[in-house]
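Design request, C-alpha cells follow.
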C-alpha cells in the first residue's frame, strides 16, 4: 500500500523537470528516487534524514539504482538550507516522529520559494466505521506479526502509538495554515489510514 500512496504523491505533486526538491526524513530513498526521475538531470533533489544509518541505507539504494544526488544529515527543525531555495518540500512518514512539528513546518516554509509546494504524506485518522477494526489490527495483530516475523514487537507497538498521537487531518491542516501555507488541502488515502496534505507558499 505504501508504494501506491507514494505513487499518488508523485502524480499529484505538480513538480516539473528542472525543479529543486527537498526530501525530508528521506530514509530508504523511495521519494528521492521518484522525484529524481521527475526533475531529470537538470533538477536537484536533496536526500536528507536525521538518522545516519537510514541516510546511508538510502544512499546505497540510490546508488544501486544509478542515482547520484546530494544528501545531508540534518534535523527538520533546523534545516541547513537558504531561504526561498526549493520548488517543493516533501516529508513522507516522518512528520509524526518530529518533536516540534510547528518548528519543522516553519522551516519547510522558510526554505520554499514563493509558489512552492509542501507535500506531507503521513498516517492519519481512519474513517470512523473502521476505527475498532483498525485498533485491533494496530495494537494486537501488528505487534504479534512483528514479534513472529521480525522478532521485534516493540517497534510495531511504537508505530501504532505514534500514529494515534499524530494530529488528525483537520488539525494538521490548521498547523500548516498557522505556519503560513495557503490553499492547504488534503486527500484521504485508503479510508484515511494515510492522508496527503498539500500547501503552498504565497
Amino acid at each position: 500500500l505504501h508504494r501506491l500512496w507514494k505513487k499518488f504523491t508523485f502524480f499529484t505533486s505538480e513538480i516539473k523537470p528542472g525543479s529543486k526538491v527537498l526530501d525530508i526524513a528521506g530514509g530508504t530513498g523511495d521519494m528521492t528516487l521518484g522525484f529524481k526521475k521527475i526533475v531529470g538531470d537538470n533538477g536537484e533533489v536533496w536526500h536528507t534524514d536525521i538518522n545516519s544509518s537510514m541516510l546511508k541505507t538510502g544512499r546505497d539504494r540510490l546508488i544501486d539504482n544509478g542515482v547520484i544526488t546530494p544528501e545531508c544529515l540534518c534535523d527538520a527543525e533546523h534545516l541547513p538550507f537558504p531561504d526561498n531555495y526549493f520548488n517543493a518540500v516533501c516529508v513522507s512518514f516522518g512528520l509524526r516522529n518530529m518533536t516540534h512539528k510547528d518548528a519543522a513546518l516553519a522551516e519547510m516554509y522558510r526554505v520554499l520559494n514563493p509558489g512552492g509546494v509542501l507535500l506531507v504524506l503521513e498516517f492519519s485518522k481512519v474513517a470512523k466505521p473502521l476505527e475498532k477494526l483498525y485498533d485491533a489490527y494496530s495494537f494486537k495483530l501488528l505487534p504479534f506479526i512483528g514479534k513472529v516475523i521480525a522478532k521485534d514487537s516493540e517497534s510495531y507497538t511504537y508505530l501504532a502509538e505514534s500514529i494515534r498521537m499524530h494530529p488528525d487531518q483537520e488539525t494538521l491542516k490548521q498547523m500548516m495554515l498557522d505556519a503560513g501555507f495557503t490553499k492547504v488541502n488534503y486527500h484521504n488515502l485508503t479510508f484515511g489510514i494515510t492522508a496527503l496534505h498539500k500547501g503552498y507558499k504565497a
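Comment from the thread starter after seeing the answer: thanks! The mean pLDDT is 93.
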